[in-house]
Amino acid sequence: MSPRTALTTPAEGLAIGFQPSPPQADAHTLHQLQQALASAGRPFLGLPDHQGQVMAELAPLLALFIHHQGSPYDDSRFDDGTGAYEEAVLTYFAALAGTSLEEAHGCVAASPREALLHSLVLARRGLPAPSVYVNEQAHADVGRVCKLLRMNTVPVAAQGDGAMDPDDLRSQVRMRRGAGALVVATCGTPRHGAIDNVADLRAAVAEFGPVHLHVDASAGGLAAAHTNLEVPWSLAHGAHSITLSGHPLLGLPAPAGISLARRTHTRPADPPGTEADRLPATSRNGLITLLLWARLRSLGRAGVAAMVARSQDAAAYAFARFEAAGTAPQRFPGSLTLTFDKPARWVVDKWNLHHSGHRARIVTTGPMTFTAIDELAADLADARQGVAA
């Protein structure tokens, strides 16, 4: 190997050498890592709760190789019988988004970002030269995907609650009338958990030419679907396409994304070799589909609704406790996301808090129990009074 292609030396004992390493020894090393992470005592608030029992039940799926070719609707000689599971998962999420697989089609993707990429490729087809109008508080992945697709991104001002401002959207689209508008609404912004009003956004741009309204509901879709919200957010409320996510609330061991689009706005039956056949989701990992299916089956619709209700109760409780601690919490109604004044460094490190600027954030899923909320609130109060760790 020449000096130019030489690799940086990895950590001791982890280098991948010319000869194979004993698999039993490496498996033991990985088990030690898993045990160390599990017993570290640092809660990862707002990340999935990897429930031991669930993971033990799903572990045999790791012995399978499941490679989905093309869309879930293609007749493929590579079909190994798992396609029906993807259809069941898509049927479930289509119902959450207010439609059915007779009216919409989609796919399960390896991550919310891949699902978003797939959706935006489809969305821009019927538009002449669209800019993408995005809530300034949207997830950063929206901007990254637009950059990857070389699409012009136009940030739209947020209102006080974090939702996209329809008046500013109207002004931005008016300046670019005739080019077509691809509006990406958000259901569950990272900062406030805010939900953009789909009906208001469509009405704001209706007079300026062709429009496609996509909803990025990766963060808040499951919660919104099980809440009596007054905010229109889904395909049932006028959106043309939507992306959702299954892993944060359900506690899967890997990311999962779902892409759905109304059939009237796409061409899912294009013959092989056309643009539709070269979408980012052409070759997909079927394992995550089985993980989603198994987890949803174990919970049922009632179980998912109960998880959402518990998480919302925890968010409301956290709001009251953090307010008493003097940290100025903010929360969109029904959201599982809560932001508050960033505390002292020792609190951030102890609780592994996600933070941006002067604000910190928790999401009340999984390990965010009422006991954990009380303990965190006590630390927040101590930090404000100058108490050291």
Largest sheet: 7 strands, mixed
- The third-level CATH topology of the largest domain is Aspartate Aminotransferase, domain 2
Low-confidence stretches: 1-7, 46-50, 271-279
Fourth-tier CATH superfamily name of the largest domain: Type I PLP-dependent aspartate aminotransferase-like (Major domain)
Q: Helix/strand-derived class?
A: alpha/beta
Instruction: Determine the mean pLDDT.
Output: 83
- Identify the overall geometry: globular
Verbal overview:
By secondary structure, this protein is of the alpha/beta class. It has 2 domains: 61-297, 3-Layer(aba) Sandwich (Aspartate Aminotransferase, domain 2), CATH 3.40.640; 301-384, Aspartate Aminotransferase, domain 1, CATH 3.90.1150. The chain is 37% helix and 15% strand. The protein is built from 12 helices and 12 strands. It has helices at residues 23-38, 52-58, 83-96, 112-123, 140-148, 166-174, 198-205, 221-225, 247-250, 287-324, 345-351, 370-384, and strands at 67-69, 104-109, 131-135, 153-156, 181-186, 211-217, 241-245, 257-262, 283-285, 337-341, 354-356, 359-363. The strands form 3 sheets. It has a 7-stranded mixed β-sheet with strand order 2-8-7-6-5-3-4, sandwiched between helices. A 3-stranded antiparallel β-sheet has the order 10-12-11, with helices on one face. Strands 1-9 form a two-stranded antiparallel sheet. Helix 4 crosses helix 5, helix 6 (166-174) packs parallel to helix 7 (198-205) and helix 10 (287-324) crosses helix 12 (370-384). It starts with 22 loop residues before the first helix and ends in a 5-residue tail after the last helix. The model is unreliable at 1-7, 46-50 and 271-279 (pLDDT under 50).
